[in-house]
Amino acid sequence: MSALSRPSRWGLRSIALIYLAALLIVPVAMIFYRTFEHGLSQPIDAITSSDGLHAFWLTIVCVGIAVPLNTIFGVVTAMVLVRQQFRGKALLNAAIDLPFAISPVVIGLALFLVYAPRNSWFGGWFMDQGIQIIFSVPGVILATNFVSLPFFVREVMPVLQEIGTDQEEAAKTLGASPWQTFWKVTLPAIRWGVTYGVVLATARALGEFGAVSIVAGNISGKTQTLPLFVKTQFDNIDLAGAYAAAIVLAILAMAVLFSMSYLQRRSARSADAEGDEALPGPGVFVPQPIEKEA
Known about the structure:
MetI-like fold, 294 residues, globular, mainly alpha
């Protein structure tokens, strides 16, 4: 294929930049402009209100619980899918991608049907134990876990497939237990995949709206997360509060983006220092092929 001419290259770059600007840069810039159009007092008052602070801290708490849980179960799930062969493996692999395939609202409705206080599979039993799932913080965390788990698993699986099993088998030959093999061999080898997964899961958890809106009930001061707070303020025609909360979410998202870029550079430098190829960068969560059982 012949090289593109200089005008063609500039044309393609311009089209890409204009497209990105129309979809991302201009809308985000307009949010910043509208937020501070009439000064700082209104947005600051909205964010520092009792409901605003509660929504912010509830979002941080949900992320702080959901992401570590997904880190533990995500590594276990990825290792099971990559390292083991068993009946139903393809089905489990497909189930991991459910949050990619169906609407978050449908996920929230499914969780409601399973954990609702009445007329559900498990909700009545939990209520008998004094634990309310739906319309409470546990439901918010559960929905956040569900929608963000695939982002972690799909980051770790390609790294596990790339490193293979040679080092693990060598450790076992030298007498290492499975637990020692994991901590001393496997985990250091997949550390960048785990880190990328944490970053992506954090970004997804911060902005989750659809599933959380169903299971949380959007109760101000109780189950209202920051994305739900934005919608409530917008519905109440409090545009300053909605824009201010959106700015907070945008800042958190940009922090995640910068962390991702920094970690990618660290991964490349670490790979160069070790004389190895760089591990897959962030965003590698495309479903991987699973070998069928014999």
